Inverse folding.
């Protein structure tokens, strides 16, 4: 395994920690800045929106630049944003810091996926991407609980100083261990990158990403309310239950990467269908503590097990210009997160109870399965003799 993949995973760990650790520190942040928790929550929403902007804008702006220096520049942006957040004298500056840090998120994962795939043999690309994304899953399992504990004991700013230090380690690792791939052809232009979006399979892949992740996060966003209000767990047990979910993320990411190297489409069909089944079972048995414990692991495993395949699929159909499409797919993940959270919230607001986000998530994921079936069927059709505005590539 190339050591450069470890460096990319460290960067992914820091970025994942930046995104998720704030959720456990909102009370401390709100108290420090004298704002309501709802206002402090915009530090999460603002971050997610900035991720989408960065995934498209920064990736497009850097398509003609060598990828390794771009990754290093993105890490510098990450360090600066988190340091500014740690130093922020007021809420506005903290928000600016969060936005700066978020801008690198989508571009880093998008470009990093391409670089990770270039570091290994063609038959190991999905596994390489999975190794990089292991950093993101590890951030949920280990980083977020530790970061929350650190912030509660020594002040929330200490957590963001540690995240900045992780960024420094990632910068050094990428600089020393990530090898620049040898040029295999002419430099890819922005026009070539945009041409990838003429592929109907690229658009279908983006839709599957948004819907599959939207379904899982529709259920996960309000999981604490479900666990305490329906399943009957105590508030103090919720963090440990989320560790189980995180363990499922790690396992699913690893298994999904290995299986996707054998068959991307078959792996995605199986994992998305399994996620639908898991969410339906969760909706029926949310009252059962033993069943819920098992479902949390499976939900994380089948949900995140799709990530290597989804990222590999869109890179495959983008052809020789995968960078912008890869970044767009990271944006699609975050759009899905926002979609799921919004839809799940509608169910609760309508008085349908704390299991309603689970059922809504199951419906969204089922729609992802339908789109995935359409994509697979379309990919198996012979390509037309003449080129049009949409094209498919046989898998």
């Amino acid at each position: 395994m190339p050591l450069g993949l470890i460096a990319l995973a460290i960067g992914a760990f820091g970025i994942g920690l930046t995104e998720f650790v704030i959720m456990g520190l909102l009370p401390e942040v709100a108290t420090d800045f004298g704002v309501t928790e709802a206002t402090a929550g915009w530090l999460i929403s603002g971050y997610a929106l900035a991720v989408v902007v960065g995934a498209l804008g920064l990736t497009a702006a850097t398509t003609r630049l060598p990828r390794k220096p771009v990754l290093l520049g993105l890490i510098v942006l990450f360090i600066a944003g988190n340091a500014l957040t740690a130093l922020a004298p007021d809420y506005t500056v903290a928000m600016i810091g969060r936005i700066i840090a978020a801008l690198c998120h989508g571009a880093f994962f998008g470009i990093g996926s391409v670089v990770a795939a270039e570091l290994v043999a063609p038959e190991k690309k999905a596994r390489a991407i999975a190794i990089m994304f292991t950093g993101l899953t590890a951030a949920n399992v280990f980083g977020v609980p530790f970061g929350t504990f650190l912030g509660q004991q020594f002040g929330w700013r200490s957590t963001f100083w540690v995240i900045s230090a992780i960024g420094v380690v990632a910068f050094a690792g990428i600089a020393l261990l990530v090898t620049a791939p040898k040029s295999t052809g002419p430099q890819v232009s922005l026009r070539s990158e945009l041409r990838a979006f003429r592929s109907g399979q690229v658009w279908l892949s983006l839709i599957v990403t948004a819907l599959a992740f939207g379904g899982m996060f529709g259920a996960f966003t309000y999981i604490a309310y479900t666990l305490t209000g329906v399943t009957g767990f105590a508030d103090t047990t919720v963090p440990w239950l989320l560790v189980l979910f995180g363990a499922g993320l790690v396992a699913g990411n690893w298994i999904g990467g290995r299986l996707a190297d054998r068959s991307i489409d078959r792996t995605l069909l199986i994992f998305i269908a399994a996620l639908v089944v898991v969410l339906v079972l969760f909706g029926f048995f949310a009252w059962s503590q033993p069943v819920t414990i098992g479902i949390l692991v499976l939900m994380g495993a089948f949900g995140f097990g799709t990530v290597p395949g989804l990222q590999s699929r869109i890179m495959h159909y983008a052809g020789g210009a995968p960078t912008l499409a890869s970044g767009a797919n990271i944006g699609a993940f975050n759009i899905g997160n926002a979609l799921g959270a919004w839809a799940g919230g509608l169910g609760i607001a309508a008085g349908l109870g704390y299991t309603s986000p689970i059922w809504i998530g199951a419906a969204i994921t089922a729609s992802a399965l339908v789109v995935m079936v359409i994509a697979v069927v379309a990919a198996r059709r012979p390509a037309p003799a003449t080129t049009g505005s949409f094209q498919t590539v046989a898998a």
